[in-house]
Every structure is written in structure tokens, then in C-alpha cells.
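## retry 2 of 3
previous attempt timed out at serialization; input unchanged, resubmitting
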Amino acid sequence: MTAYLERRGCRYSRTTVHKYMNKELGLRSIVRPGKPGTKPGKPHKVFENKLKQNFTAEKINPKWCTDFTYLFLKNGDVRYNCTIIDLHDRSVVAGITDRRITSDPAVRTLQKALDSQPGSRKELILHSDQGSQYTSKAFVEFCESAGVTQSMSKAGL
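## retry succeeded, writing output
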């Protein structure tokens, strides 16, 4: 990478640009913290990918997707948001934020989604990654008891 930035034929060193951004304009960069470290564990159960990259649905409620999102707060704390979306129209069916990234918020989010969509359990596929929250015994048993079919992408996708 070159040590100079060019614009309209003028050359400015990185040091000059940095000086003007910080001192003259009062601009500061905001560095987003990285994801908290996690240790891979042994999954309780992994499921076949039933969607096969077909993330569309002809009608409401046959296919849902779920995942966790990291929320970095200004005070340095982290929250974890578990959200379920309907692949028919990409609408959010349910979402819960928690201080821990465990199977508990995943189960509560799915329960909330099922409660908000009566009759959605028939032939419902819930697609997720192979995160420990979704492969845990508690989540797998909850899905089985609710009549929800699990589907998972390959690890690392």
C-alpha cells in the first residue's frame, strides 16, 4: 500500500491527513471491539441442512431462520440478541436480548415465536448454524416437544 493518498493531483502523507482529522477537524475513529472469545464444544446433536441454500418460502411460516447477534454497548458490556425471521417476507417473528449466549435465550425466542404464530408448528423448519445454543440438549428437546424440525448449515458457514 502506498504511503500517500492522492486526490485531485495533490499528495498528502498519512501523517498530514491524521493531523488534520484529529486536530483541525476534531474527528476520531471508533474501533469496534471484536467478538468475545468462545471455546468450541462438542455438539449434542447436529441436523441435516433441509433448506439446501433455498432461503425462500412460498407462504408464511413454513421456514424460519435464527441466529445470535452481538450488541456492543457504549459502556463496554455485550448483549446477545437472538432473532427468528420468517423466510417468506424476512419479517422478524421474535427476538430476545440477554446477557448470556446460551440455549436459554434461544429456547425463549422460539417459544415467543411459536406463541405469536398459532398454527405455525405444522411442518415448520427452523434453520440455524451449528452454534452450541442450537445443538444443546435443552434446545433440541424443546424443538422435538414443540414439533419443530431443525435444519443446520455446515460448521463455519
